[in-house]
Automatic annotation (TrEMBL):
GO BP: iron-sulfur cluster assembly
Stored Pfam families: ParA
Name assigned to this protein: NUBP2 factor
CC terms in the record's Gene Ontology section: cytosol
GO molecular function: 4 iron, 4 sulfur cluster binding; ATP binding; ATP-dependent FeS chaperone activity; metal ion binding
Keywords noted in UniProt: 4Fe-4S, ATP-binding, Iron, Iron-sulfur, Metal-binding, Nucleotide-binding
Domain of life where this protein originates: Eukaryota
Amino acid sequence: LAERTNLAGVRHILLVLSGKGGVGKSTLSTELALALRDAGKRVGILDVDLCGPSIPRMLRVQDSAVHQCDSGWVPVFVGQDKAIALMSIGFLLERPDDAVVWRGPKKNALIKQFVTDVAWGDLDFLIVDTPPGTSDEHISTVEALRPYPLLGAILVTTPQ
């Protein structure tokens, strides 16, 4: 039941993916969120790049912390208008530059928890910034999001 309620207010989910690192997924996710916010939309970003969570720094909220509420984690709200909600492992680390060295099952469990246990509220768009490559994290993310209406995916590529 909790799985249904935390994403119940999210109208569209958009995955941002790539086959390799360093192509600008996090930059694109951040810029897209800012553009949608500027267009009057309510936006969330779910940063599932567990080994390199860069979005908190891009949005200048890397020193923020997440809190618990009755329905799970409360995301960090960005900017004076608080129009972008953000959840990232970067908020759960002791130091933002700490490396995350986990095996697949622990990563997969955290991704599932991010999908089911974050109190997003009402959002027009939830942008999911994924890690580079085609790893277990992508399969876990898609599996966890399967019950929900996805808008689609953006595949970020480079000319080479």
